[in-house]
Amino acid sequence: MEAWGGNAAVVGEWIGTDNYSGSSTEVTCTNGDVIPAEYSIYTKESWVFVLKANGTYYEVYDSEYNALDYEASAANCEATYGETMFENDKYDGNWAFNEEDGTLTVIDFKYTDLLDPANNEVYESGDVYFSGVAVDVSANQLILTEQGESTTFTRR
Fold first, then answer.
1. Other CB atoms within 10 Å distance of the CB of residue 91
2. Which top-rank group of organisms is this from (predicted)?
Protein backbone atom coordinates (compact mmCIF):
# COMPACT_ATOMS: atom_id res chain seq x y z
CA MET A 1 0.00 0.00 0.00
CA GLU A 2 1.25 3.48 -0.84
CA ALA A 3 1.52 6.08 1.92
CA TRP A 4 -1.46 8.44 2.15
CA GLY A 5 -1.16 11.50 -0.07
CA GLY A 6 1.38 11.95 -2.80
CA ASN A 7 1.57 13.96 -6.00
CA ALA A 8 1.14 17.66 -5.12
CA ALA A 9 -0.40 18.36 -8.55
CA VAL A 10 -3.62 16.58 -7.55
CA VAL A 11 -3.91 18.39 -4.21
CA GLY A 12 -6.67 20.98 -4.15
CA GLU A 13 -10.35 21.69 -4.32
CA TRP A 14 -11.93 20.33 -7.49
CA ILE A 15 -15.41 20.91 -8.88
CA GLY A 16 -16.97 17.92 -10.66
CA THR A 17 -18.25 18.62 -14.15
CA ASP A 18 -19.73 15.18 -14.73
CA ASN A 19 -23.41 14.98 -13.90
CA TYR A 20 -26.35 12.70 -14.35
CA SER A 21 -28.35 15.05 -16.56
CA GLY A 22 -28.46 13.80 -20.10
CA SER A 23 -28.70 10.12 -19.15
CA SER A 24 -31.62 8.85 -21.13
CA THR A 25 -33.76 5.79 -21.57
CA GLU A 26 -36.80 4.72 -23.55
CA VAL A 27 -40.28 4.23 -22.15
CA THR A 28 -42.72 1.82 -23.79
CA CYS A 29 -46.15 3.41 -23.65
CA THR A 30 -49.28 1.42 -22.89
CA ASN A 31 -50.35 2.06 -26.52
CA GLY A 32 -47.13 0.41 -27.78
CA ASP A 33 -45.29 3.58 -28.78
CA VAL A 34 -41.77 4.14 -27.47
CA ILE A 35 -40.63 7.56 -26.27
CA PRO A 36 -37.22 8.85 -25.18
CA ALA A 37 -36.91 10.25 -21.66
CA GLU A 38 -34.24 11.52 -19.27
CA TYR A 39 -33.81 9.39 -16.13
CA SER A 40 -33.79 12.56 -14.04
CA ILE A 41 -34.10 16.29 -14.52
CA TYR A 42 -31.64 18.12 -12.26
CA THR A 43 -32.43 21.62 -11.04
CA LYS A 44 -29.31 21.85 -8.86
CA GLU A 45 -26.01 19.96 -8.95
CA SER A 46 -22.89 20.63 -6.96
CA TRP A 47 -19.98 18.22 -6.61
CA VAL A 48 -16.85 19.21 -4.68
CA PHE A 49 -13.87 16.82 -4.44
CA VAL A 50 -11.07 17.97 -2.10
CA LEU A 51 -7.69 16.22 -1.89
CA LYS A 52 -5.54 17.55 0.96
CA ALA A 53 -1.73 17.39 1.10
CA ASN A 54 -1.86 15.30 4.30
CA GLY A 55 -3.56 12.42 2.42
CA THR A 56 -7.10 13.07 3.64
CA TYR A 57 -9.96 13.87 1.33
CA TYR A 58 -13.62 14.78 1.38
CA GLU A 59 -16.32 14.98 -1.21
CA VAL A 60 -19.71 16.71 -1.04
CA TYR A 61 -22.68 16.16 -3.37
CA ASP A 62 -25.59 18.59 -3.20
CA SER A 63 -28.40 18.16 -5.70
CA GLU A 64 -32.10 18.57 -6.40
CA TYR A 65 -33.79 16.55 -9.11
CA ASN A 66 -37.01 15.02 -10.34
CA ALA A 67 -36.87 11.33 -11.25
CA LEU A 68 -38.72 9.82 -14.17
CA ASP A 69 -42.08 8.29 -13.23
CA TYR A 70 -42.14 5.25 -15.55
CA GLU A 71 -45.77 4.29 -14.88
CA ALA A 72 -47.16 7.79 -15.47
CA SER A 73 -44.92 8.22 -18.52
CA ALA A 74 -46.11 4.92 -20.02
CA ALA A 75 -49.76 5.77 -19.33
CA ASN A 76 -49.53 9.34 -20.73
CA CYS A 77 -46.99 8.49 -23.45
CA GLU A 78 -44.94 11.53 -22.46
CA ALA A 79 -42.07 11.91 -20.03
CA THR A 80 -43.53 12.59 -16.58
CA TYR A 81 -41.44 13.34 -13.51
CA GLY A 82 -42.18 12.90 -9.82
CA GLU A 83 -41.67 15.12 -6.83
CA THR A 84 -38.40 16.93 -6.21
CA MET A 85 -35.76 14.78 -4.53
CA PHE A 86 -32.86 16.17 -2.51
CA GLU A 87 -29.38 14.76 -1.88
CA ASN A 88 -26.70 16.33 0.28
CA ASP A 89 -24.00 13.76 1.06
CA LYS A 90 -20.43 13.99 2.32
CA TYR A 91 -17.73 11.33 2.19
CA ASP A 92 -14.49 11.52 4.19
CA GLY A 93 -11.42 9.35 3.82
CA ASN A 94 -7.87 9.09 2.55
CA TRP A 95 -6.14 9.07 -0.80
CA ALA A 96 -2.85 7.75 -2.15
CA PHE A 97 -1.06 8.43 -5.43
CA ASN A 98 1.08 5.73 -7.03
CA GLU A 99 3.95 7.60 -8.70
CA GLU A 100 5.12 4.57 -10.70
CA ASP A 101 1.92 4.08 -12.68
CA GLY A 102 0.30 7.51 -12.18
CA THR A 103 -2.83 6.18 -10.49
CA LEU A 104 -5.01 7.32 -7.62
CA THR A 105 -6.69 5.26 -4.93
CA VAL A 106 -9.34 6.79 -2.65
CA ILE A 107 -10.77 5.03 0.40
CA ASP A 108 -13.90 6.22 2.25
CA PHE A 109 -13.99 5.91 6.04
CA LYS A 110 -17.09 7.94 6.76
CA TYR A 111 -20.39 8.79 5.05
CA THR A 112 -22.53 11.68 6.29
CA ASP A 113 -26.08 12.26 5.06
CA LEU A 114 -26.34 16.01 5.63
CA LEU A 115 -30.14 15.83 5.37
CA ASP A 116 -30.77 12.80 7.59
CA PRO A 117 -28.08 11.88 10.15
CA ALA A 118 -29.86 8.57 10.78
CA ASN A 119 -28.22 7.37 7.53
CA ASN A 120 -24.65 8.23 8.57
CA GLU A 121 -22.09 5.41 8.42
CA VAL A 122 -18.52 4.74 9.50
CA TYR A 123 -16.44 2.23 7.53
CA GLU A 124 -13.93 0.96 10.09
CA SER A 125 -11.90 -0.97 7.50
CA GLY A 126 -12.53 1.55 4.74
CA ASP A 127 -14.61 1.31 1.59
CA VAL A 128 -12.88 1.58 -1.79
CA TYR A 129 -14.13 4.54 -3.81
CA PHE A 130 -11.44 4.60 -6.51
CA SER A 131 -8.79 1.93 -6.91
CA GLY A 132 -5.87 2.58 -9.20
CA VAL A 133 -7.64 5.05 -11.52
CA ALA A 134 -5.53 6.78 -14.15
CA VAL A 135 -4.88 10.45 -13.41
CA ASP A 136 -4.25 13.30 -15.84
CA VAL A 137 -3.67 16.79 -14.45
CA SER A 138 -3.40 19.50 -17.07
CA ALA A 139 -3.98 23.24 -16.78
CA ASN A 140 -6.79 23.49 -14.24
CA GLN A 141 -8.32 20.07 -14.82
CA LEU A 142 -8.10 16.75 -13.03
CA ILE A 143 -9.26 13.83 -15.19
CA LEU A 144 -9.79 10.43 -13.59
CA THR A 145 -10.20 7.50 -15.97
CA GLU A 146 -11.39 4.06 -14.94
CA GLN A 147 -12.27 1.31 -17.41
CA GLY A 148 -12.53 3.80 -20.28
CA GLU A 149 -14.91 6.15 -18.40
CA SER A 150 -13.57 9.59 -17.49
CA THR A 151 -14.63 12.01 -14.79
CA THR A 152 -13.45 15.60 -15.16
CA PHE A 153 -12.91 18.10 -12.35
CA THR A 154 -11.97 21.77 -12.62
CA ARG A 155 -9.77 23.43 -10.01
CA ARG A 156 -11.72 25.85 -7.83
1. 20
2. Bacteria
